[in-house]
C-alpha cells in the first residue's frame, strides 16, 4: 500500500524484477480520480519507469476530513494495445490534512 499525506505529492520508481520497461508503453491508472498517465523512463534506472502524482492530482481523490478511504490503482503494459498486460496493482491511501 502506498500512503500519501494529503498535502503531498508522489514520485515513485516503477520496475519489475524480470522485465526491462524502458521500451514498453506503461500506464498508471487510478480510476477513483480518473487519472491515467503514460509513465516516462526513469532517469536514474534505465530499466524502470517513473510515476509522478502532483498535489493537485492527490487532491482530486474523493476524501473527507474524517475518513481516509483506500483507492485501487493498476500499472498496465500497453505496448500491444490489443493485449494489455497488468504489471502490478495495489492501493493508495491519503492521510493527514488535504490541501485547500
Explain this structure.
The protein has one helix at residues 55-59, and strands at residues 2-5, 10-14, 26-30, 35-38, 49-53, 70-77, 85-95. It is elongated, with a radius of gyration of 14 Å. The two termini are 25 Å apart. The protein has 100 residues and is mainly beta. The strands form two sheets. The protein has a five-stranded mixed sheet with strand order 1-7-6-3-4, with no helix packed on it. A two-stranded antiparallel ribbon has the order 2-5. It has one helix and seven strands, in the order E-E-E-E-E-H-E-E. A hairpin with a 4-residue loop joins strand 3 (26-30) and strand 4 (35-38).
Low-confidence stretches: none
Structural class by SSE content: mainly beta
Distance between the termini: 25 Å
Q: What is the overall shape?
A: elongated
Cα-based radius of gyration, to the nearest Å? 14 Å
User: Helicity level, as a percent range?
Assistant: under 10%
Average of pLDDT: 87
Number of helices: 1
Number of strands: 7
Q: Which range does the strand content fall in? A: 35-45%
Order of helices and strands: EEEEEHEE
Kindly list the characteristics that best describe this protein:
100 residues; mainly beta; 5-stranded mixed sheet
In short:
With 100 residues, this protein is mostly beta strands. It has one helix spanning 55-59; strands at residues 2-5, 10-14, 26-30, 35-38, 49-53, 70-77, 85-95.
